[in-house]
Design goal:
- The longest helix is centred in the first third of the chain and has 24 residues.
- The mean pLDDT is 91.
- Helix content is 79%, strand content 0%.
- The chain has 57 residues and is mainly alpha-helical.
- It has a domain of 37 residues.
- The radius of gyration is 22 Å and the shape is elongated.
Length: 57
């Protein structure tokens, strides 16, 4: 039977969660202004393309 310090386990779990959150934030906020503008224009182009293909009643 292994003895586990619950405090250490809790801190390790919190550390893992913080690491995952940091990775998500790096993706979300770690882009340059040009990359953000390009992504925005690509999304607008895709939406426009989808609207063009929609059938009008």
């Amino acid at each position: 039977m292994t003895v586990v310090s619950l405090n250490k386990a809790r801190k390790a779990r919190a550390r893992d969660a913080a690491t995952a959150l940091a990775a998500e934030n790096r993706v979300a906020f770690g882009r340059t202004k040009a990359e953000k503008a390009q992504a925005k224009s690509e999304a607008a182009r895709a939406a426009r393309s989808l609207d063009d293909k929609r059938l009008k009643p």
